[in-house]
Every structure is written in C-alpha cells, then in structure tokens.
Design a protein that fits this description.
There is one protein chain. This protein is mainly alpha-helical. The N and C termini lie far apart (46 Å). 67% of the residues lie in helices and 0% in strands. Helix 5 crosses helix 6 and helix 5 packs across helix 7.
C-alpha cells in the first residue's frame, strides 16, 4: 500500500464522496432518483475496490470518473431521453424576505441555465466552477483535451451570458 494512501474506511468514503457523487450525477441525469441510484452504485464500487489509491486527489478523481462513466452509460442505454419526475420539481418555499426570495430566484435561474447547456459544456462548467478543478484536470476526468475543455467553457459562458442577459450586468466574459 502506498505510504500516502487514503484511509479505506467505508464510513469515511461515504461521508467524503456521497454528496459530490450525487451532485455530479444530477448534473448529468437531471433526475434525483437516477442520480441516487448511480451514486449508490459508484460508492459500492469505491468501497469494494481493492487496489489502493496513491493519494486523496487520485481517489477523488477516480470517484468522479466512475460516476461520470456510469451516468453516460445510463444515458446511452436509455437513448439519452431524460425524464424529470414530478417529485424533482421544486415545491414553493416558505415565505422569505424579499431579498432572500430574489436571491433564490436568481440562483434557480442560473442553475436552470447551466442545466440547459449541452452535456459537454455542463460537465465542464460543473467540474471547473463548482468543484474547482483546473481545465487540465477537467480534461483528464472527462477524456478530452485541455483546449477542448477551454472551448467548452468559453461556449458555455457565452451561452449563459446570452441566457442571463440583463440578470447579471457584471457576468464575467
């Protein structure tokens, strides 16, 4: 076992990765039920994996790659038809202050615009902006070149800028 190998405790693995895997899967599948299924399968694969990881970064990248592959397989097997069950539609929230309500609506609008992006752009945006991976690492995770990831991010930003025009005058270029 490598000297810096992460702890293989199943509780730590679930604690450290369940939320991350669920978010990655939902970004792909846009269905809570499907995301939960793939999340569970990914965590089982992680827990059952016998080969140790070099370090936590390698472990995290492996988990994301396995989750992405499982999502792609599910979409391919379905013919890429995505269904959003009624249970996934947000319920109206309890009364909030006008400022909180405006922020919630803005966040929902941004999330909706991101989720409407084509899958390659959506995955690049999620991994780069939400998970904080540099473009080189995003490229390795999704199996693309660094230039392709930068292009996807550029196109995604342009699309989001158009979709959210007027909502964010200071949206970055």
């Amino acid at each position: 076992m490598p000297r810096n190998a992460p702890d293989r405790d199943p509780e730590r693995l679930v604690r450290d990765y369940a939320d991350l895997v669920l978010r990655v899967c939902y970004t792909y599948l846009r269905s809570t039920a499907d995301a939960e299924d793939v999340c569970q399968d990914t965590l089982v694969k992680l827990i059952c994996r016998e080969e140790p990881f070099r370090d936590l970064g390698h472990e995290r990248a492996w988990v994301i790659r396995v989750a992405i592959n499982a999502c792609r397989n599910l979409l391919r097997d379905r013919g890429a038809h995505t269904v959003v069950p009624l249970a996934d539609v947000a319920e109206p929230a309890a009364a909030q202050s006008p400022g909180e309500d405006a922020l919630r609506r803005r966040d929902e609008r941004v999330l909706g615009a991101v989720m409407a992006l084509p899958l390659p752009q959506r995955e690049a945006v999620y991994l780069h902006y939400y998970e904080g991976y540099p473009t080189r690492e995003v490229a390795r995770i999704v199996g693309a070149t660094d230039a392709a990831v930068r292009q996807r991010l550029s196109r995604a930003r342009a699309s989001l800028r158009d979709d959210l025009k007027g909502d964010y005058d200071d949206f970055p270029a």
